[in-house]
Amino acid sequence: MEKEALDYLFGAGTYAGRDIKDTPTIVLLDLKLPKIDGLEVLRRIRANEHTRFTPVVILTSSKEEVDRLQGYALGSTPM
């Protein structure tokens, strides 16, 4: 699922040719993803010029404060 979301955001794979300037209003991101770590997804979103300022809200069952702090450090939207 996370790869499909990244493909959508960046116009790759089955979403090749999609106008990547048409970004979502907000991204809801789970940190506990099966293939790509949620923080890595956030890094990729922030590294791209078209998604750099898209609000990202992290949803997680993690009780680890380090997860929350890393998410904020990478630019997630505080809630």
Overview of the structural elements:
By secondary structure, this protein is of the alpha+beta class. The chain has a single domain (23-79), classed as 3-Layer(aba) Sandwich (Rossmann fold), CATH 3.40.50. 35% of the residues lie in helices and 10% in strands. The chain has helices spanning 2-10, 38-47, 65-73; strands at 27-30, 56-59. The protein has a two-stranded parallel sheet with strand order 1-2. Helix 2 (38-47) links the parallel strand 1 and strand 2 (56-59). The longest helix is centred in the middle third of the chain and has 10 residues, at 38-47. It starts with a helix and ends in a 6-residue tail after the last helix. The mean pLDDT is 88.
Major β-sheet profile? 2 strands, parallel
Tally the helices: what do you get? 3
Can you count the beta strands? 2
CATH architecture tag: 3-Layer(aba) Sandwich
Q: What is the rounded distance between the termini? A: 24 Å
Query: Mind telling me the C-alpha Rg?
Result: 12 Å
Mean pLDDT: 88
Low-confidence stretches: none
* Percent of sequence in beta strands: 5-15%
Helix coverage percent: 25-40%
Give me the secondary-structure category: alpha+beta
Return the CATH topology: Rossmann fold
CATH superfamily: Response regulator
Q: Into how many domains do the coordinates divide?
A: 1
Cα shape: globular
The CATH class is identified as Alpha Beta
Instruction: Give the SSE order as H and E letters.
Output: HEHEH
